Amino acid sequence: MSRNEIEQKIRDLKTRLSCQESDIGDWKVAKCMEYSTLGLEAPYDFQELHEKRQAVRNEIDALEAELKIAPISEEEIA
Which residues form a coiled coil (predicted)? Predict the structure, then answer.
């Protein structure tokens, strides 16, 4: 995978964590916290949501580590 592809994948994963349309977006975390604060049962399985979000963060970390050692291509230099 090229540096550009790695960087794009990282951007895509970060967007997945924050996007309103994402099944694991920040909005679901906020909604769970809102319900919890009101003493209500969370509308989503918070443990499952956390595990899915953590898996994405782990993938981002792995890609960022890969990016640090990925060679710079000729076209990226130009």
Answer: 3-66
68 contacts: CB under 8 Å, gap ≥ 6: none
26-37 helix and 46-69 helix, angle to the nearest 10 degrees:
140
Cβ neighbours for 24, distance < 8 A, ≥ 6 positions apart: 16, 17, 49, 52, 53, 56
Over residues 42-72, the pLDDT tens digits come to 999 999 999 999 999 999 999 999 999 988 8
CA distance 5 to 10: 9
On average, the pLDDT of the chain sits at 93
Q: Domain map of the chain by residue range?
A: 3-71
Q: State the Cα–Cα distance between residues 50 and 33, nearest whole angstrom.
A: 12
